[in-house]
Design brief:
Shape: globular
Strand content: under 5%
Helix content: over 70%
Order of helices and strands: HHHHHHHHHHH
Radius of gyration: 20 Å
Largest sheet: none
Number of helices: 11
Distance between the termini: 40 Å
Length: 222
């Protein structure tokens, strides 16, 4: 098997490039939106927070293909939300990014939420007694003390996003040269009988996964 030759083919490079771009964008969203959602869920109680918590957790227990189908109905051109969107989300790059973001979001939010409910909560209460506002407490006290949890959640979210298939298939459509991510391209290669290329793609995605695993191990040893 010509590993380097297969790796250099456009049919291999394009899905790899698309996956890296989607991970870069969704990774930023996970860091910003995921941390803010976790803080929101721990800053009080109420029915709205329960709904947000339910929606964030849903991708962990709901089949990805079904999650993608629901998002397709909502975000398609005739969907309740899609008709108001200034850009076409479904079957385009934004759909791929959204699939990566949604699939990895629970693994970003839950570790941060658990950390904010732990011992660090007392530090926040002390800061507020000393006159700090909610946002000052979050940025200057809470966030620096949970940075390891944030980093661990971020790596887990990236790993989950990297292997996402079901939601991406629904929102992206697996359009060759446009929305076929690395994981989807493995399926495409197997379906078309290109087992050598499927193996190369699996090795590439495996190396990414090992890198994430090594980073998590190093983080837990610190």
């Amino acid at each position: 098997m010509d590993f380097v030759g297969i790796l250099a083919q456009p049919e291999t490079i394009n899905p790899l490039r698309l996956t890296l771009k989607a991970l870069a964008v969704s990774g930023v969203l996970h860091l910003v939106v995921g941390v803010l959602i976790a803080y929101y869920l721990t800053s009080g109680k109420g029915p709205l927070r329960s709904i947000v918590d339910f929606l964030v957790t849903l991708p962990l227990v709901f089949p990805p293909i079904a999650t993608g189908f629901i998002l397709l109905l909502l975000l398609g051109r005739a969907g309740w939300l899609g008709r108001f969107s200034p850009v076409d989300i479904v079957f385009n790059f934004p759909g791929v990014v959204l699939a990566s973001f949604v699939s990895g979001l629970p693994l970003m939010v839950k570790p941060v939420e658990a950390a904010l409910k732990g011992d660090v909560r007392r530090l926040g209460e002390i800061a507020q007694v000393l006159g700090k506002s909610d946002w000052q407490t979050f940025w200057l006290v809470l966030l620096p003390n949970i940075r390891r949890n944030v980093t661990a959640g971020w790596f887990l979210a990236l790993g989950r996003s990297l292997g996402e298939v079901g939601v991406t298939l629904m929102l992206g459509g697996n359009i060759i040269g446009k929305t076929n991510t690395l994981s989807l391209e493995i399926y495409n290669a197997v379906f078309s009988g290109e087992f050598d290329r499927a193996m190369v793609l699996a090795v590439v995605i495996g190396l990414f996964s090992l890198t994430i695993f090594a980073a998590l191990k190093k983080l837990s040893a610190v």
